[in-house]
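Design job #97: recover the sequence.
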């Protein structure tokens, strides 16, 4: 998995960097030398040369100690930041895998809260063109017409409600193509999910939707932990999955109505 590989790579980098990161010993002449470590001994600087693999000395008056120490401090902060990032990502991975044990093994979208996973019902989207609508068959490409079409779900609000502004979802589905969360726009007795434009000589399809910025954490093949990068305002939303340019879409709608303190 990409996430696990990245975590391992960060850990290895941090360990190597912290254990043997070379330093630059700056000279007042404007040049510098790569060293493993150095120390000031009275009027001389003793250092271990990375080029020659041995301890050497140089008069302290030739060394720009202020610049050397400032750069060393910056490098230490960078390495500590790498180590902290690696530790945080490993902790997040462990937390997500612990949560995953509470998610059903059946395919679907699940809202996760208080160590409980609740299945989010899938909707049957409909298509509107020139004031006429027809129910779409999930995962079946729609017939191609010139112009613009709207993809909608019935009702002004979803029957499924989450009571927090930063909900966490788990999705299990090995057939995912392009998925995310979108903001829905109420229209009479429906909610607008997506607009499909036809353009070009081959009548190509271009999907438009109001996407929410997300964090996506892959835990296994076809298994993701998904949550918004910023708290969601109260309103209507949907988790969607579709194949760009194919006109197919699956929809799981939900309302966000944060309770006090959430």
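Job complete. Output follows.
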């Amino acid at each position: 998995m990409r996430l696990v590989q990245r975590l391992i790579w960060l850990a290895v980098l941090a360990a190597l960097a912290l254990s043997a990161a070379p330093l630059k010993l700056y000279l007042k002449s404007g040049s510098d030398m790569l060293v493993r470590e150095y120390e000031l001994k009275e009027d001389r600087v003793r250092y271990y040369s990375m080029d020659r693999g041995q301890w050497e000395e140089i008069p302290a008056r030739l060394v720009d100690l202020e610049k050397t120490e400032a750069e060393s401090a910056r490098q230490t902060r960078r390495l500590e930041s790498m180590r902290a990032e690696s530790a945080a990502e490993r902790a997040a991975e462990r937390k997500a895998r612990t949560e995953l044990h509470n998610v059903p093994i059946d395919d679907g979208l699940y809202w996760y809260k208080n160590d409980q996973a609740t299945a989010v019902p899938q909707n049957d989207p409909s298509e509107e063109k020139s004031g006429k609508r027809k129910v779409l068959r999930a995962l079946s490409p729609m017939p191609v017409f010139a112009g613009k079409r709207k993809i909608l779900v019935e009702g002004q609000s979803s029957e499924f409600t989450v009571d927090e502004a930063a909900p966490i979802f788990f999705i299990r589905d090995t057939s995912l193509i392009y998925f995310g969360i979108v903001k829905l726009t109420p229209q009479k007795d429906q909610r607008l999910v997506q607009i499909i434009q036809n353009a070009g000589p081959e009548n190509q399809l271009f999907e438009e939707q109001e996407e929410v910025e997300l964090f996506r954490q892959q835990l296994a093949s076809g298994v993701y932990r998904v949550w918004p990068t910023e708290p969601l305002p109260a309103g209507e939303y949907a988790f969607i999955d579709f194949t760009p340019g194919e006109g197919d879409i699956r929809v799981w709608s939900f309302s966000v109505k944060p309770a006090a303190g959430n």
